[in-house]
Amino acid sequence: MGTRVIRTEDPRLLTAGGVYVDDLRAPELSAAARLTFVRSPVAHARITGIDTSEALSEPGVIAVLTVRDMDDLTPPPPSSGEWDGSPAPLGGPWAEPLLAVDTVRFVGEPVAVVITDNGYQGEDAADLVVVDYEPLPVVLGPAAAVADQTLLFPAAGTNIAVVNPVPTDDAPFDACDVVVEQEIVNQRVACLPMEGRAAAAGYENGKLTVWASSQNAQVSRFILAGALGMEPDQIRVIVPDVGGGFGAKIGIDRETITIAWAARKIGRALRWAETRSENLVGMTQGRAQLQHIKIGGSRDGRILAYRIDVIQDAGAYQRIGGLLPFLTCLMAPGVYDIPDVQAGFRQAVTNTTPIAAYRGAGRPEATAAIERAVDLFAAEIGMDPAEVRRRNFIAPDKFPFQTKTGAMYDTGHYEEALDKALAAAGYTQLREEQRRRRDRGDPKQLGIGLSSYVEITAPDPDAGETAKIEVTDNGSVTVYTGSSAHGQGHHTAWAMLVQDELGIPMDQVTVIHGDTDLIPVGVGTYGSRSLQLGGSAVHKAAIEVKDEARQHAAAMLEAAEADVVLDTSTGLWQVRGDPDTALSWAQVAGHTSGGSLIADVSFTQERPTFPFGTHVSVVEVDTETGQVKMLRHVTVDDAGTVLNPVLTEGQRHGGIAQGAAQALLEEVLYDVDGNPLTSTLADYAAISAPDLPSFELASSETPTDLNPLGAKGIGEAGTIGSTPAIQNAVIDAVSHLGIRHIDMPATPQRVWTAINEAWKASNQ
Amino acid sequence: MKVDLTVNGKEITADVEDRLLLVHFLRDVADLTATNIGCDTTSCGACTVLLDGESVKSCTVLAAQASGHEITTVEGLASNGTMHPVQQAFHEQHGLQCGFCTPGMVMAIVSLLKENPHPTEEQVRIGLEGNLCRCTGYHNIVRAALAAAEVSS
Asked: Looking at domain A461-603, which of 3.30.1120.10, 3.40.50.2000, 3.40.50.1100, 3.30.365.10 is its CATH number?
């Protein structure tokens, strides 16, 4: 534990390239045809006719299929109608079809599929499928959605799909010296894994094989079985290399189900890899909340009451029910011990791309809101924002800490994280530099932004994770993990855990994930759960294998089990105090009847874990142009015990960059008719290398006691911490002009407009 | 139409559609799948390869245009089982996570270091503007480029 180990995955990825879905050369796919989706070009319309005849006459066209061809499928089960706090099922009045039935509800919704010999023919033929649309009024933005003027699902009677009412008790605010309110847009962003969605499918002898770019093979199989009316053991899902997921590849989408169905329907293997233009309208997007916050406290810096009222834009279909705003409300008070917290939400459907998990999934929105609120409160009482934070942290002796919103924080030391981050950044000197620039009226102003955060990882700890370890009589190990890798370094990490416990060198360890025939039971990767659940499962399996090996070694050495020890530095079994006896793992495994030692376990955790930290962002704002430049980004991210700092730092770097992208650049936009304005990478402002500085990471490890590794999740922390720190830094840079809030992304236009309005107001 | 390309030192002749993109030629005709496609607007750089030693985005070059030229992909970079200094630096600096942008990113850096063997951090960042990565935050990619420059000097 704690050793810097470079990745075992790399040489293959660097020299031959990964094998992503579209790279597969499996024999079953050698004659695969290409599937191309015909997608809606309008945001809301009734379909009055589909003419496939012209497309069918094109060269290379094998079939053109619409929902009318799906006569072999049963419709999804109806919704219970009552939301019990878990993700609502698809179905009922809000049902999302695989292909549009009689209505389209967002630009990019799949309407038909064209199957051709090759991809170029598919694009040609898809253009020739004629769909008649009768336009309907368009619902855009959460505020318009909740007005219920136009309904996306008339049978539901409302656009508000999930409600968790915010308590509105004004008394705690009435008792405060100072109360500040603010409306905040947490804008819609694209998840943008570099590999878009991709799938392939083949159906032979009653067995369906689906290759999918997914974070969860087993979950995908479950979804396929339900949608296609098959038994899980009739389906094999294989997840090869995955080019990034970030939440948008949890399970599989309707497109992948459609491919699996079509392969079965026409009896030919099919493959699909979406274009980026498809990806930017078809893949689920993230965030998309309108928040109203209210914070109150005393003039000496004590926060006494906090309210957050969220309207979540679900997009056209609810992919994960009310999970995102539920997590936002759960994490609403953040790292602060606030006597009164009121949090609630409404989730509404709109004529836009569906919203689902994106790195952080509901928690970045909570942190952005509370960290903005604390800065607004600090500005109102004229106190340094670091000091306000310090005065309100949950004290270290209060853990485990039950929050007012129902979370049970496991361990934390929030003030220490703040102090470390401030010291690493040189906070006092930064404030002095800021003062000097203000005094001389420098057109380039310095902004210093803070974000102290806590987040929830492994939010479904009782779902757990599986691991099977097999040590064979040649001394090598195979680890079968239910967890799923798409860049995090699972293969390196799991091999490290095996070597730590069994003393078998990492190069003798093979890790297998993402194949439901080999690993029928597993959960996969989301919610920063891999190491704490999947890693703990590997650790647990290793201990079980060791216990079994000890019995065999004792018999072979004719010693009592208690006297047989494993030297993990050599991987040899010995009788205590007798260095001449030594058995290798190969010998011990060879002693078993089957020639191998096997442990098959699942690990569940009693509660989620709560990593925390502080980010300090330093930006320079050109007050003449509104341009923001990130100068430095300093972080303390405490996710418990670190297994491999190389991997942890990589997760933090990537998280910081994605958070910075939301703070400064990225936003999915629509025109008034619901046409996407950011459906290519020429239009969507994806963050790139010159937009960012190198990051400064300080270390901190406060172990959790909820798993044997002491580990919490680190996958999403960077994103959760960085976004509000950078937003706060931008506003801090211009706060002396009287500016208290600028919505994200802090584009030059938006920042310049805020500065210009502040100047106009001060000169009136 | 008939095209004739040298890919990683090997001559490949094929009869292709006029409109076939170089990236599809590499993936589907030459069966070299390391070069990935990440967008359709020449924005992401996942498909970056070397054409006569200079980086190009192979999604924006027709196979026909590349006919008669030499193409190098990441598969052709290592020699005798030894990784190229840029590949080695990516490994040592943890410059890759999911690996999807990596082949293009490596080729872009090979080209960058050829033009400017001793770049500053800022020059590396500006040089990589056309190559997107969603995993690493570019931090370790920049480190890898600087480390490779150091080794090559």
From this structure: 3.30.365.10
